[in-house]
User: Fold this.
Amino acid sequence: MKPVMDDLVACVMNGFISIERAQKWCNDLTYLLTQQAISIFELQLTQPDGSEVGFEYRVSDDGSLFESSPSGGQRLHLLPQGTKANLWVRYRDNVEPHVHEEMRRRNWGAGGGSLGGTAVRERAYSNESYGLIRGRLGDW
Assistant:
């Protein structure tokens, strides 16, 4: 999760989210990943004109991922001031009810949706063949 936190801190440094929100998202994602509850999450960035870009993080838990890229390389400096970040997750079909209950307790709602499109793979973060594959979404 350290590379993901690094990505979130980059959003903080660019003024897209607060440090408190970045910490909360990291805690929430850690919980969801340890519960094996999600297959994908997206860091969505909405620019002042309403256009959206972002990053898809695809969970790789089948033992096939062995590479580990350095964090960074987001190129967030290309986005204008006033850009806002949001987080979206795709739950797996077999999520235990207690996970949904916990996420409601953490004030997660059922709104929003995926940015869609095909993510262009950029980096992968793994540890002992479990990890995340990061891809770029939208027209950068």
